[in-house]
Amino acid sequence: MKVLRQLVEERKPTKILEIGTFIGYSASVMLDANKDAYLITLEKDKQNSLDAVKNLTEQGFVGRFEVVNCYTHAIIKI
């Protein structure tokens, strides 16, 4: 996570797309590393999506993220 945090701190992205969130740990690291970032994360597992929303909300990131419960291939065509 140290490398991820450093990357976000250096690049300062304002929009972040994360594919696969599990319970939101990486998302929280990225949002914490850049206070101006907005993050959208895609997660296929409904319970993981709910857990991620709960965790990110409890950490104070309300209004700075969106968790989309879907299969990635339904959103991104590769």
| Strand line-up in the sheet with most strands | 1-2-3
How would a crystallographer describe the biggest sheet? 3 strands, parallel
The separation of the N and C termini measures 27 Å
Q: What portion of the residues fall into strands of 2 or more residues?
A: 15-25%
User: What's the number of extended β-strand segments?
Assistant: 3
Indicate the topology.
Layout: H1 2-11, E1 15-19, H2 25-33, E2 38-43, H3 46-58, E3 65-69, H4 72-75
Parallel strand pairs: 1-2, 2-3
Descriptive report:
Helix 2 (25-33) links the parallel strand 1 (15-19) and strand 2. The protein is globular. Helix 1 packs parallel to helix 2. The protein has a 3-stranded parallel beta sheet, covered by helices on one side. It has helices at 2-11, 25-33, 46-58, 72-75; strands at 15-19, 38-43, 65-69. The N and C termini lie far apart (27 Å). Helix content is 46%, strand content 21%. With 78 residues, the protein is α/β, with parallel strands linked by helices. It has 4 helices and 3 strands; from the N terminus they run H-E-H-E-H-E-H.
In short:
This protein has 78 residues and is α/β, with parallel strands linked by helices. Helices cover 46% and strands 21% of the residues.
